[in-house]
Write a structure and sequence with these properties.
- The protein is an alpha/beta fold.
- It folds into 2 domains: 51 residues; 80 residues, no CATH class.
- It is built from 7 helices and 8 strands.
- The strands form 3 sheets. The protein has a 3-stranded parallel sheet with strand order 1-2-8, with helices on one face.
- A hairpin with a 2-residue loop joins strand 4 and strand 5.
- Helix 3 packs across helix 4.
Amino acid sequence: MIASNVMETPTHTDFVIVGAGIAGLRAAIGLSDAGRVLVITKEQLGESNTSYAQGGIAVAMGGEEDVSLHLEDTMNAGDGLVNREAAKVLVEEGPLRVDELLQWGTGFDRHNGKLMLTREGAHSRNRILHANGDATGAECPAERGGESDPLDARGRLGLYA
């Protein structure tokens, strides 16, 4: 059920998530198997920082060696400010999260049928995915809705604006 500011406020929920960007919606989807989830957003579902994100997603899709190198690139770029354990989780889980986005219908840019990876910033390899050039955030299924929208498939999320 999707609630709006004209519907009655839900009186029972197991989890409350504030923010309907990709992180909030991904958390809501993950929690939906454990109970009722309420997502609170300031406007409407598509109105989030995610939907305006123009940059790409850095991900090591080349196996364990690429994951290790991605971690080192991240540490070097952070110049001592990066928490190594947090960065390790990020780069190790990155390929799984991108696979999830692909399953949900995210249209990352492709060349000859393969994901197009570019190089940016401090990355030593091509590992940046974009969608529709500089519209990566707007292409995320949770932001655009539709048939492949993971929120539609769950049916246990309440959204309140």
